[in-house]
Amino acid sequence: MNTQILLRSGAVAGIALLVQTAELKVPDLAKLPPAAAKKGVTYTKDIKPLFEKSCFGCHGPEKQKGDLRVDSLEALLKGGEHGKVVVPGKVDKSPLLWAVARLDEDTAMPPEGKADPLTKEQVALVRAWIEQGAK
Ligand code: HEC
Questions:
Q1: Residue 25: what pLDDT?
Q2: What secondary structure letter does DSSP report for 64?
Q3: pLDDT grade, residue 21 (50/70/90)?
Q4: Helix or strand run (H / E) with residue 103
Q5: Is the distance from the beta carbon of residue 68 to the nearest atom of ligand 1 less than 6 Å?
Q6: Is residue 91 part of a domain?
Q7: For atom 37 of ligand 1, which residue has the closest CA?
Q8: What does the pLDDT look like over 24-49, one tens digit per residue?
Q9: Closest ligand 1 atom, residue 100 Cα
Q10: How confident is the model at residue 22 (pLDDT cuts 50, 70, 90)?
């Protein structure tokens, strides 16, 4: 093998590794707002109205970016192209929460400038919903 091919395969392996770590990377969860104090948080009553405004345009009946729909609880719990986006009771396994909290600019949802981002209070409500079992 000549040097050029060696260098090139090294770069490819490097990129593959980067892509993999980007997917698996859990952001600093200490930056999440604490869960809202509200009891009995449900998808239909509390979460759906927020997502309707900020997410349905890309994750609803018309478009399913990232193979994800968040317009029903069932579809949301199924997840997207990278698997589950919410695991009931598990904040550290729920990338949807990290996305709406905008912990990492590459995975922040909605994408910058495309729809209204959730307020800190709304993110706190999403956290409470997940911690209470994502009902
Ligand atoms: C303007 C379009 C747009 C809006 C609005 C939007 N998203 Fe996304 N979303 C995307 C795109 C595009 C991807 C795929 C990103 C990728 O694969 O790199 C994505 C991916 C995701 C993923 C990762 C899915 C997976 O399995 O990889 C989650 C979670 C997510 N969005 C949640 C949300 C939530 C929650 C909202 C509303 C608060 C929202 N998105 C609003 C475009 C949007």
A1: 80
A2: B
A3: very low
A4: none
A5: yes
A6: yes
A7: 55
A8: 588 999 999 999 999 999 999 999 99
A9: 38
A10: very low
- Quick one: tokens of 1? 């093998």
* Amino acid making up residue 126: V
Question: Could you tell me how many helices (H) and strands (E) the chain has, helices first?
Answer: 5, 0
- The tokens describing 90, both together, are 């598990």
Cα 115 to Cα 94, 110, 131, distances in angstroms: 21, 6, 26
What is the structure's pLDDT at 110? 98
- In a mutational test of the pocket of ligand 1, which residue from 109, 112, 119, 125 has the highest number of ligand atoms less than 8 Å from its CB? 109
Question: Does residue 2 lie within any of the structural domains?
Answer: no
Domain assignment present for 115: yes
Q: What is the number of domains present in the chain?
A: 1
The verdict on residue 6 lying in a domain is: no
Q: Tens of pLDDT along 64-114?
A: 999 999 999 999 999 999 999 999 999 999 999 999 999 999 999 999 999
To which residue do tokens 């892509």 refer? 19
Atom of ligand 1 nearest to the CA of 55: 37
